[in-house]
């Protein structure tokens, strides 16, 4: 389906974004590995998470929705031989976390995904899991591949990339390995796996290596528990960005996860002069939550430090769109990982921005956007998204503040992370319609 976004006056009101995608995947996987029942409130019901739910069913867990809307996972205390291929759809998180979690069980599991996921590198999890003792069959370290699991030995793994997916694969494998498993990465990535493993009763702590605290896990039995999934900051990023660039807007995005390892985009916005504040901070579940209050703002270009990249890895596309409405240069570096996301997000964002009349340029590990301030963006283009959900949402937000409407060629994949995106934005007054 094609969607069109155009300017229609200020955005106002309040809304809660859907549940956090990272926490939703982890709750299903750990619930399935645990003994007993896990009840999950506000699970993201997006396509990516549905693939994880179906995967853990194939691996032996029961997953059903209760009459109160909560999802109930009844774990088998480990994983069993699946009867068919595990289809991870578009989701790198599903693939990498499940490959790690299955690798320590005596089973052979075939993993596959859609055309985009089949192109994404899996060697980053195959390498540490092979060192631990798992075996793999497949071509060129991509999906489809078969994991031959079995008795693993714990390792200290020094990952060349900062990736929560790699870290989670290693730690989940370590839950059922001999000895201790430690993960070391260049910059700290999101820590939801570590936090949630503690809630499920795992034997997890931190150890100092080269001056940094690194997670360490030992063989553990998980116990079913209750999980509450806060709103996803990576989804909140889109209405927050829209309110900043559409003049006279004033919105409240409620119940958002504000884990500091997810806030790089919002920190950068503050440096750009954005009027974004947090209200009613709370921490009922081992993860911090707050409401975000946003008012349209005059923005200046920014130069986020490369070490911040893991804390805003999914928000670079929307940052590039916002940068078009700031005064001056925004220079994004240290973000080469963007080339191996659901699409090559550097090339797609630069192509789309140029099509909308914005001065933008590719770097090997990022991009430069020369913003010309509010009301400067022409728009008036149909954007090629290659089925990338975050690229599609970024250009729809850009269209809300452009002089001419912006069309995205295929908005279906938005349902992988933000089901109901158009309706959510319409609720705040945005003009986003199907063509
Ligand atoms: C995620 C980690 C990030 C992020 C993805 C979700 C996770 O990927 O881009 O959307 O839930 O662990 P990387 O670990 O590849 O950076």
Portion of residues in helices? 25-40%
User: Which ions and ligands are bound to the chains?
Assistant: shikimate-3-phosphate
Structural category is alpha/beta
Strand content: 25-35%
- At CATH level 2, the architecture of the largest domain is Alpha-beta prism
Any idea what the radius of gyration is? 21 Å
How is the CATH topology of the largest domain named? UDP-n-acetylglucosamine1-carboxyvinyl-transferase, Chain
What is the fourth-level CATH superfamily of the largest domain?
Enolpyruvate transferase domain
Ends apart, CA distance between termini? 7 Å
Key features?
435 residues; alpha/beta; UDP-n-acetylglucosamine1-carboxyvinyl-transferase, Chain; 2 domains; 4-stranded mixed β-sheet; 13 helices; 29% helix; 27% strand; globular; binds shikimate-3-phosphate
């Amino acid at each position: 389906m094609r969607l069109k976004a155009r300017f229609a006056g200020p955005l106002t009101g309040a809304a809660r974004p859907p549940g956090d995608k990272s926490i939703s995947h982890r709750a299903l996987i750990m619930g399935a590995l645990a003994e007993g029942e896990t009840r999950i409130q506000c699970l993201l019901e997006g396509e990516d998470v549905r693939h994880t739910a179906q995967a853990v069913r194939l691996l032996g867990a029961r997953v059903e929705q209760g009459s109160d809307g909560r999802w109930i996972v009844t774990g088998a205390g480990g994983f069993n031989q699946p009867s068919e291929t595990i289809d991870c759809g578009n989701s790198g998180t599903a693939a990498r976390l499940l490959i790690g979690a299955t690798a320590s069980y005596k089973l052979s599991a075939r993993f596959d995904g859609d055309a985009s996921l089949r192109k994404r590198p899996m060697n980053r999890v195959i390498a540490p899991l092979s060192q631990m003792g798992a075996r793999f069959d497949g071509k060129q370290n991509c999906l489809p591949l078969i994991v031959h699991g079995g008795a693993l030995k714990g390792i200290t793994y020094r990952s060349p990339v900062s990736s929560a997916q790699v870290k989670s694969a290693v730690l989940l494998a370590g839950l059922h390995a001999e000895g201790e498993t430690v993960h070391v990465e260049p910059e700290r990535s999101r820590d939801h796996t570590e936090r949630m493993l503690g809630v499920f009763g795992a034997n997890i702590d931190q150890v100092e290596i080269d001056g940094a605290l690194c997670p360490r896990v030992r063989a553990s039995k998980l116990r079913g528990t209750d999980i509450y999934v806060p709103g996803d900051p990576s989804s909140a990023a889109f209405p927050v960005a829209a309110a900043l660039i559409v003049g006279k807007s004033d919105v409240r995005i409620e119940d958002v996860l504000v884990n500091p390892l997810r806030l790089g985009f919002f920190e950068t916005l503050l440096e750009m002069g954005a009027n974004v504040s947090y209200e009613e901070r709370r921490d009922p579940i081992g993860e911090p939550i707050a409401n975000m209050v946003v008012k349209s703002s005059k923005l200046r270009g920014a130069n986020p430090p490369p070490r911040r990249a893991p804390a805003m890895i999914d928000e670079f596309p929307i940052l590039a769109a916002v940068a078009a409405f700031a005064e001056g240069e925004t220079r994004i570096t240290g973000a080469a990982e963007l080339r191996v996301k659901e699409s090559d997000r550097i090339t797609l964002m630069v192509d789309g921005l140029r099509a909308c009349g914005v001065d933008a340029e590719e770097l090997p590990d990022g991009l430069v956007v020369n913003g010309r301030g509010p009301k400067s963006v022409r728009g008036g283009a149909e954007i090629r998204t290659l089925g990338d959900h975050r690229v599609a949402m970024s250009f729809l937000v850009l269209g809300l503040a452009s002089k001419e409407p912006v069309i995205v060629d295929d908005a279906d994949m938005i349902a992988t992370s933000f089901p109901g995106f158009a309706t959510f934005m319409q609720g705040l007054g945005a003009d986003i319609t199907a063509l």
